Every structure is written in C-alpha cells, then in structure tokens.
Amino acid sequence: MIEQSVWQISHLDLTLRMVLAAVLGGLIGLEREWSNHAAGFRTHILVCIGSASIMLLSIYGFSEFAAEPNVRMDPARLAAQVISGIGFLGAGAIIRNGSSISGLTTAASVWVVAAIGLSVGAGFYYASVLATFLVLVSLFLLNKWEKHLLRHRRNQEIAIKIFDKPGSLGRIATKFGEQGIQIKNVVMQSVNDLSDGDTGAGGTMELRFTLRTANADKLLRAIDDILALPDVIGLESGSLPTVRMSALSGGKSAAGKG
C-alpha cells in the first residue's frame, strides 16, 4: 500500500524544481539565442518551466483524491500530452527556403527542453542535468565538428538579381572562379518588377547558383566582388545573411538579415 505522503511535496522542493527547470532550459535557450534562432532564451525557459509545472501538477496536483476509494493515480497522464503537444511550437521554428530547410535543430531543442522540464518536475534530477549537458555538447561542440567534417560536401544556394545585359552571367561566374568556388548548377529566370522601367537593355533576371566551397570566407569575398558589379541589383542566400541592394538610387546600399 503506497502511503499518501508519496503524493505530497514541500514548497521548498517545488521551488527547487521550478528554478532548476528555468536554469536548465535557459542554458539551452542561451545557445539558440546566441546563434540568432527563432526560439531563443526566453522561449526555452518558458517551455521548460511549463513542462515542469505540468509534471508537478500531474504528480501532486490531485493529492487530495489519493486516499479516495476506486481512485487510481497516474502521474504520467499529463506528461504524455506534453510530449505529443509540444510539436506545434517546434514546427513554428522550421522554415523552408527553396530546397533548404532551417530550424530543425531549434525545433528539436524545444522538444528536448520539454522533456527536461518533465524530468525536473518528476524529481529526476540526474537525468535532467545529464540531458542538458549532452544537448549543450551537441549544440556547441558537435555543431562545429559537423561543419568541419561536411565542409566539402555541402552546397550553397545563392540567388542574384541582375540587369539582363550581355556578359553579366560570365562576369559573375568569373568572380566565383577567382575564389576557387565550384558552380554546380545555374537556373535563370526573367524578372521585370522595377517600377521606373530603367532596366538597361533587356529587363532584369534572377540567377540561382548552386555552389560548392569549403571556405566560407572565400564565398563572402566573392559575394563582395559580385555586389560591386554594375549589373547586380540584389543577392540573397539561404545559408548566409541576406543582402539586398538597391541600384535605383544614386548608389548601392546593403542591409543584412540573420
């Protein structure tokens, strides 16, 4: 016979679990915030605290009914709903940009933080701290190792908007070649959306390059050289900060997006 005290928790222990959930969730969220991802510091703290609260509620929130006849306590009943329901929040962090998908790691970190919060709420301290440590190792160290290991295998996708003039494509391709960047594929599409009609000889065109390079610095240098070309209107990249250029005013201006 399980004693009724099993379903009781002191205010001190409850406070400890809630604070620990905030700390562990915040540590993971801090890495996501530092990397400028959608779900950051506060989001991870809220998810972890919320999960811990639901776990505490599931275990101790109905303690007054524990001694009632024909009542069976199931501490996992609310926790199961958290695991299945947290997916909608993670899905909001997933972004599709052309053929590339970003945000999967952040979505996974939100899901893991929910599990950590449930563990803290259940008093499973060692597993909570160990899971947090392994997640931080994965996000910090394994992320760098993965980039180093796959640096020769990953393609970069860049869209460049240009005035459709003879030789424009060749000049851009030359800039990539000067930096030793391999062009895997080029897709050309006509675009005519400039408001004043000053598009040069043949309107505007969007070039979508699939590139392969092991050196991000060389890619950035090539982009700088390309943006300096008179025929280039704008440039966008799914893996690098987006740069938009305006050639309609007297000079060119750039703005970055994380």
TrEMBL record:
Any one GO cellular component localisation term in the record: plasma membrane
Highest taxon in the source lineage: Bacteria
Keywords associated with the record: Cell membrane, Membrane, Transmembrane, Transmembrane helix
Cell compartments where the protein resides: Cell membrane
Membrane topology type: Multi-pass membrane protein
UniProt-listed InterPro entries: ACT-like_dom_sf, ACT_dom, MgtC/SapB/SrpB/YhiD_fam, MgtC_SapB_SrpB_YhiD_N
UniProt xrefs under Pfam families: ACT_4 (PF13291), MgtC (PF02308)
Membrane-traversing stretches: 14-31, 43-63, 75-94, 124-143
Residue stretches making up the ACT domain: 157-233
Main location: membrane
MgtC/SapB/SrpB/YhiD N-terminal domain sequence ranges: 18-147
Keyword Membrane: yes
Gene3D superfamilies: 3.30.70.260
UniProt family annotation: Belongs to the MgtC/SapB family.
Protein name according to UniProt: Magnesium transporter MgtC
Biological source species: Paenibacillus flagellatus
